[in-house]
Amino acid sequence: MTDILFRNFAMLEPRAGALQSGYQLLVRGQHIAELRPGAINEAGARVVDLGGRTLMPGLIDCHVHIMVPAMGGRISAYPNVLPSFQAAVAGDVLRGILMRGFTTVRDAAGADAGHREAVEQGLFTGPRLFVCGRAISQTGGHGDARSRADLSSPCACVHLVGGLCRIADGVTEVRQAVRDEIRLGADQIKVMAGGGVASAADPIDQLQYSDAELAAAVDEAGRSHSYVLVHAYTADAIKRSIHAGVRSIEHGNMIDEEAAAMMVRAGAFLVPTLITYRAHQRLGDAIPRAPGEMEKIRTVLEAGVRSLEIAARAGVKMAFGTDCFRTRTEFQTEEFLVRAEVLKAADIIRSATTVAAEVLRMEGRLGTLAPGALADLIAVDGDPLGDLGLFQDEGARIPMIMKDGQFYKNTLEA
Fold first, then answer.
1. pLDDT at 159 over 50
2. Residue 39, domain CATH
3. What gap in Å lies between CA 6 and CA 48, rounded to an integer?
4. Same domain membership, residue 91 and residue 25
5. Total count of domains within the chain
6. 244: containing domain
7. Whole-angstrom distance, CA of residue 267 vs CA of residue 6
């Protein structure tokens, strides 16, 4: 494989938080082989002149759901959508995500090891995938797709095959569910620790799973060298999760100062997903709704921006997430603009690069321009630190996208 030499660019290394000039970067195979000021003399290398554009690491989204667009807005696909159609739609979703500049994503329920392997083998064109398999929920929890009028018992046909979630009650059952998802190839485990918006039977402030059940999930994941992320909105749900040893809090819209301080002490991460609520509000009744869902959306939306302020003031590490759960994934990059209402551009870009890489336990390998890191790179027409709008419009101002040292978009060379 021919080495690739990038030159004539403004370098955006997220840790520096400022553009730097005069560097050249050499890619060899899947990795960045060399980065330094001045010229790199590498005979036979393919030279790519970036024309003064910004070169930066590929973006990382720590909360996506690639399976939901095929499900018609339902938590469970059964009996409405065949697995073959789900997989086909997921492949299309993955390609769109990559073309927006996201070279890595963590799917927070629904995608499994098969999707990951399809990307790795080139059957799907998409970002690198870290998958949860199916999220684990208590009966009546956020992952229970039954309505209040449904008297049936949860069964594998509805809550395992073709869905985002599985039901497990009690310490033994939770341990079994975690073990099974790890057996099936999950990179990390998702647990529903509080009430949700899209589920009919649970109010936002419901505290889901006992302390013992949460601790069991964390223990099982840890013994397989994995970790737990939880769905949690309220401060109480966050505190219980941190006490149990959870590593990543998803959403966290109603965090308070005490919960934020606990997260800092524990070294836990927050993954806000604010664009999904604004998108839901814009789309209104165009999406199938559970009873009372719009009121829940208004509740978490009102608290959302304040959650960023509280977390930032406390020093909580925040990673980039979008959770375009039942809305179109085209809203994905608007998360940058929502966060810009409160946070500095440099911190937002770090959330989608270096901090996100920490969440994935890939620090030094993803989200950075450094020798030895994987060659996930994007070129941007302009300075994202001065204009986060450059990430909008479906990657229109991202003329080059590289993942694992391979070009997936390159309009710079005729």
1. no
2. 2.30.40.10
3. 5
4. no
5. 2
6. 59-359
7. 36
Which residues have C-beta within 8 Å of that of residue 275, sequence separation ≥ 6? 322, 323, 324, 331, 332, 334, 335, 338
> 46: Cβ–Cβ under 8 A, 6 or more apart, which residues?
2, 3, 4, 5
- Convert the pLDDT of each residue in 30-81 to its tens digit: 999 999 999 999 989 999 999 999 999 999 999 999 987 766 655 555 567 7
Claim to verify: residue 217 and residue 173 sit in the same structural domain: yes
For residue 138, how many other CB atoms are within 10 A of its CB?
23
Task: Find the CATH number of the domain harbouring 184.
Answer: 3.20.20.140
Residues ≥6 apart with Cβ < 8 Å to 210: none
Predicted local distance difference test score (pLDDT) of residue 210: 98
